[in-house]
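Sample A.
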Amino acid sequence: MTPTERTIARLPAHLRRYVVSQDYDAYTPRDQAVWRHILGQLRSHLSDKAHSVYLEGLEATGIGLERIPSLDEMNEKLSKLGWAAVSVRGFIPPAVFTELQTLGVLAIAADIRTHEHIQYTPAPDIVHESAGHAPIIASARYAEYLKRCGLVGFKSIATVEDEAVFQAIRNLSVVKEDPSATQEEIQHAQDRLEAANQSRRYVSESTRASRLYWWTAEYGMIGTMERPRIYGAGLLSSIGEAKHCLTDAVKKVPLSVACADTEYDITRMQPQLFVARDFEHLFEVLSEFEATLAWKRGGDYGLNEAIQARTVNHLVLADGREITARVVEALPGVRPVAEGLNSALVRLEGPVMVSREGKSGSKPWPGLALVAFGEGTLPDKGPFKLELASGLKLQGFAVGGGEVLNLRGELDGHPVELPNVAMLFLSTGLPSVAGGPADPGTWDRWFGELNAFAEGEGEAKAREKKATALHPSLAALYREVRTMRESKSIHLARLEQISNAATDFRDDWLLKVEVEELKKSARA
């Protein structure tokens, strides 16, 4: 098996289905020219402006100047750092991206930007994902931060509106990279994103986590306020951003947890950046942010976050059981049950999955479920009556396995409307409420998309259009120049002819740059 195949084989199935072949032979000579141009400019500009680990990090992670890196070569190098990389197509769901990161796996977008977007592209591409994210992993401390940051993002609670925004951003990036897209299509995609953003009822935990990631791992600077260095992937992989960020036009502020409440716009260069003192500073801010999440706080706070979100999340009960479902209502009790927990009863909308330590061994319950808080024991079978510390009284008939029939409830002398048939759980507390299913693999097997790449059809079609948009004659010229470069057999007379032929393609400046470079090297 190749290094990449070994990486893929150890991934859980629900993550593995987002992985695609890099298809290295699909990169055209112009794609290789785009890579060379960007990396040449970045290495020259960043040698004394990026974090000190940057240049050695390029070598340590298998990223060279002359050609687009192959994932097999990258994985040979990354394995020595305890990391790996897989190829994906365009934007992948945030939960997939963050879970991969917690495992020490970089998701590398296989496509490369067009020469029209050489300065900056809003779409994920191999320049950003490899030359941006990989080099700083050579710092073991920063690599650990990436994993921790991934875990925080993975545990954060996302809303239904977050999903709509993700799909709109994804669509906009695809449309902008599609050479055949009309101005009307681009405007529609921009309007869709604006509408999705306006649909947000509040700023979710997931949105705040993504902002923290953006202002650190993507657009972070490090060092002194007077002479900050670059370490964020978005800055390390964008010629325009790398030059712009160090000018006085960009405001620099000390990194704090306030970055999680600072919006960003992916379609333009950033007007303000946060500067970390050092990599330890990143952990300080991350810990402060993590303490605000339902994952860490649990109790009523966590329940309210899950109810607002209207998405599938999971409750961690006091005995370690994890209940995955949609939380639809929390009924307050007469007395607190535990610190930070005044709720007496929680209603869950099925399907409901029970797990421990992220592993579920049973079929999800399709109907409604309840979690009642307080000390009590539900018999396996037969009639029961419970009086809980919250003031809630319950009675019914236990069928077995937690299923109950003819359920009746009373709180503070008033009847509580309850489903006649439900799954009932008892717990003395609620230490955590976290985003998504507790066992993503099992949940995915039961309820996941049958074809993950139905989501990626737009990226695939845009890629095909980019590949065919290049005029055959221009493609042939690029191919000839690439052959000269690789064979080191440079013919000046032929280069002059190619340069003259390139004038027929006025919008394509990159070929002329390639030709002039070869001429210069031949004369040296």
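Sample B.
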Amino acid sequence: MSHLKRWMFLAHRWLGVALCVLFALWFVSGVVMMYVGYPKLTPAERLMHLPPLRGAAVALEPDQALAAAGLQGPLRDLRLAVASGGRAVYLATPQPSKAAPPGDARPRGAPVVIDARTGAVLTAVDAPRALASAAAYAQGPAHAVHEGTLQEDAFTHSRALDMHRPLHRVRLGDAHDTVLYISGTTGEVVRDATRTERQWNYAGAWLHWLYPLRGGLVDRYWADIVNALSLLGIAAVVTGGVIGILRWRFAGTYRSGRRTPFPSAWARWHHVAGLLFMVVTLAWIFSGLMSMNPWRIFDSGAPALRTNAMHGGPLQLPHAGAPVAALLQAASTDTRELRWTRTAGHTLVQALPASGPPTVLDAHTALPHAWQPGELEAAAARLVDAPLQRVETLRAYDAYYYTRDAHTMTGGTDKPLPVLRLVFGDPHASWVHLDPHTGAVLGRLDRHRRTSRWLFGLLHSWDWLPLLQRRPLWDVLLVALSVGGTVISLSGVVLGWRRVRRKLGWRTPAAPQAPMR
């Protein structure tokens, strides 16, 4: 038993020496991330910065533009917006199974960009086109400067941007010193980062997610390194917790009169703070590991949703569809984008304004579309090859469907209310959330993902509605617990430094003595 205790002491001591600085960085950067997130362009921001469609130069109807581009097959998505180079363009994404047009070197899944005035397919994105996109984004006086192209930098570590690389970096020259990243594939603005976001991120997400390891020689091992450090961190906390409990005098005191045996003030702080905050520290490190989906433990292997079965096939534009001018006339004057969709057997157009819900129009008549009772539910029942057990209507957020602030890791996506929750009887216990206004599938949660929600979302971000709805209680609690974790870490830094200094034989120089008189 004594042999085991000795090895546990040694393991905790040297794991602490190796990891205490990292722990301190994790706690401090976590507090920063509560208020400044990693840069991203949310759907709401994107729409707000698109110029209005009314008055834009749109000479071609969508079927004409597709014909000019040589796209005859079914589509996965079709949009019209002033989104590339300051001009109105159609962005058409063919079904993946269809061959790309001759000479098309687009990344897989990237849309074909078609000039809505001439029908020309816009391919290479050069600096002038990137600057024009930036000027349209600014919607006002700007002194944009093109800073070159890049594959990846500190603020673009995101797989969602892969189809857009290389990225054009443009400094907007506005009051916020905004840097825009322009897609090298479509010419769209795909990310923005203000000076505040960039500066704070070096003390926030960039440190918290160990992004200094990204983009270099060890990039391919980044996930493995994070997983390994998390496992070692868990071992350090567990061994420290056991030692802390064993060394604490719950009955009586040591000869010093204290319940902790350590004479050093730093060691006492480390002991007491470790006992008080070891559970939350362990929960944060463990949930951080869970955020990485280590060894794909949250991948259930469930088959993809059968969206074609729900929608009655891929998107095919009507031969005599409503003109763009009629669609814009029927929608808000502030419409920024038209999106053609195939939804539950109907070809529809969503007219998206700068803010607020879209107007849903019939693609044939430009009249507002209304769903018949039970129509959406009947179509959505075909999404999963299993019985639809029940349909719930959520009129308020709950533990599994909720919203977070836009800057947070899981925030920034559209979470409308009310929403339909379809519960299926498949082996994966799938839930599907459906927007009853547009008919859009908002997401799927199977048993594995619901487990991830608790092991990561709750334990790491404390995204529990009773807390989130009672801010600043959430803020006070998380900051206080983070301070406790920082005390553990910083005291560990001091103790570790002293231990290393002794092992290396370093001595503090003695103070010079005064000469004898």
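B remarks: The chain has a mean pLDDT of 92. The longest strand covers residues 75-84.
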